[in-house]
Design goal:
By secondary structure, the protein is mainly α. The chain has two domains: 1-226 and 238-264, no CATH class; 283-489, no CATH class. 72% of the residues lie in helices and 3% in strands. The chain contains 22 helices and two strands. The chain has a two-stranded antiparallel sheet. Helix 5 (132-141) packs antiparallel against helix 7 (163-197) and helix 18 runs antiparallel to helix 19. It is globular, with a radius of gyration of 22 Å. The model has no long low-confidence stretch (mean pLDDT 85).
Length: 489
């Protein structure tokens, strides 16, 4: 029952936030923070329960919750394993960071918090869902709050020409294509199971046991891969991502970039490869080429951008290419790198997005040709900005470096030549990252240099926490891995 409350509590909190805005505009923020602190306490209880329970060797799950839902074989089946625990911790932690950064002066603040909490609830639902139909439901529902966040609360300068609406519509169309591909695969697998066993089932463990012929497995694997590739995103299915990153509000971008994209990575690890192991193994070379294309394309495109958000978007596209290559590595070492890299990438991009939000809030622009030479005007922000940007290109001492090193080490054993090309491609990310840092902190003098940022202590503390966690992952990653994997008994 504890697992279901992880999904239910943000929904209840979101509804209360939405309604209590009429009483006081400060209440929604307080309720949202209380909601996510409750989620964090609940997560700790679940983690302790997983630790203290002896798990049978014949089960994949540390903790489960399963009730009948629909009579055609659909269950409300939730479960956790080590990977799920990591993703839950990431979602709750960065969800709390997102809520803490929301300004109380935001118009329709209650509705804003409602959408943020629904995104968090649906993301947690995807990570917990073991019934494939249930996973699809959360995969679909999460698109709605993202759409309304972008259209109602997006980039102020684009409201006159409906760029926010266009970006949200493009996102929704791509999302529907993704969902349609996933639905097709789920229905076909359930039908094959029905023809084989005489009953309908959408259960993960039932569908994973199916014996498929070669051509059926290939077709279904490619279809499901496309479904997740759209949301990763993979070039050329990435245009929605750049647009939604550019025009969505800062907190919405944090949620999308920090943990919502990771649901697609999770989906490939959880569903795509286990359901179709043979075809996935034969797909490694193609995946490597796709991932390498992502790395190079994202790095090259980030050169020509002046909007900080778009720079972050294209750098993230590069990193998703690296993660995609790592996922299809046959060595378990790569999975440790994936975990560290997911955590570090999410934290570093969250920090950059928060600082970008301050640029727009105080200077009304995100153009690096305008917001330059601000080292003496930003207080502690330049030091934190340096940490987050250097983490982006994998500087030693940050979690990103540990993740990249582990991934590349594992892939070198498979294909040394490809790994060398990946390393050279990743070096391209150093140039736009350092260029952005140089212009913002040390660029030429402009009138905007006279502006002194008035960032609250709460906001500084949030950024400082992110920086500390990022460095902790880089200096002593084993602390996190030990904590998360010691329940493997």
């Amino acid at each position: 029952m504890l697992l279901s409350w992880l999904i239910i509590i943000p929904i209840i909190g979101g509804i209360i936030c939405w309604q209590c805005e009429r009483i006081n505009h400060i209440l929604p923020g307080i309720i949202a923070i209380i909601t996510l602190f409750t989620e964090l306490l609940l997560f700790i209880l679940i983690y302790q329960q997983c630790q203290n329970t002896i798990h049978p060797h014949n089960t994949l799950w540390l903790l489960t919750y399963n009730i009948n839902w629909i009579s055609i074989g659909v269950n409300f089946f939730l479960a956790v394993d080590n990977l799920t625990i990591i993703m839950l911790l990431l979602t709750i932690f960065l969800g709390l960071i997102s809520v803490l950064c929301i300004s109380n002066n935001h118009p329709n603040i209650g509705l804003f918090h409602f959408n943020i909490l629904i995104i968090i609830s649906c993301t947690i639902g995807m990570f917990l869902s073991i019934d494939t139909f249930l996973f699809l439901c959360f995969w679909e529902i999460v698109n709605i709050p993202v759409y309304f966040l972008t259209t109602n609360f997006g980039y102020r300068k684009c409201t006159s020409n409906n760029l926010c609406l266009k970006a949200a519509t493009k996102f929704f169309i791509y999302s529907q294509i993704s969902s349609l591909c996933m639905l097709s695969v789920i229905v076909i697998l359930a039908n094959i199971y029905h023809n084989t066993h005489g009953v309908w089932s959408f259960n993960y463990q039932d569908l994973i046991s199916l014996n498929l012929n070669k051509y059926t497995e290939y077709l279904l694997m490619i279809t499901l891969f496309i479904s997740f590739a759209i949301k990763i995103p993979i070039v050329p299915l990435h245009s929605w991502y750049v647009e939604i990153q550019t025009y969505a509000p800062t907190n919405g971008v944090m949620d999308i970039n920090s943990f919502l994209l990771k649901t697609a990575i999770y989906g490939i690890i959880r569903f795509c490869i286990p359901f179709f192991p043979i075809s996935s193994n034969q797909f490694i070379l193609i995946i490597s080429i796709i991932g390498l294309s992502n790395i190079i394309y994202g790095a090259i495109m980030s050169f020509s951008q002046t909007d900080v958000k778009r720079i972050i978007s294209y750098i993230s596209i590069s990193h998703m290419g690296l993660l995609l290559i790592a996922i299809y590595s046959v060595y378990s070492t790569a999975y440790y790198g994936i975990i560290i890299f997911i955590l570090s990438h999410s934290i570093s991009t969250t920090g950059l997005i928060i600082i970008t939000g301050y640029f727009y809030k105080y200077l009304n622009t995100r153009n690096i040709n305008i917001i330059n030479g601000l080292w003496a005007n930003m207080g502690i922000i330049p030091a934190l900005l340096t940490i987050f940007i250097t983490a982006i290109f994998g500087l030693p001492g940050t979690g990103n470096f540990i993740g990249e090193f582990t991934i590349l080490l594992a892939n070198f054993s498979i294909n040394p030549i490809l790994t060398i090309i990946i390393i050279i491609s990743l070096l391209l990310l150093v140039i736009p990252s350092l260029r952005t840092l140089q212009l913002i902190c040390y660029g030429k003098y402009t009138l905007i240099n006279n502006y002194m940022f008035n960032i609250t202590r709460k906001d500084q503390l949030v950024l400082l926490i992110l920086a500390i966690v990022l460095i902790l992952l880089g200096v002593y990653p084993q602390l996190i891995l030990t904590m998360l994997f010691k329940i493997n008994k």
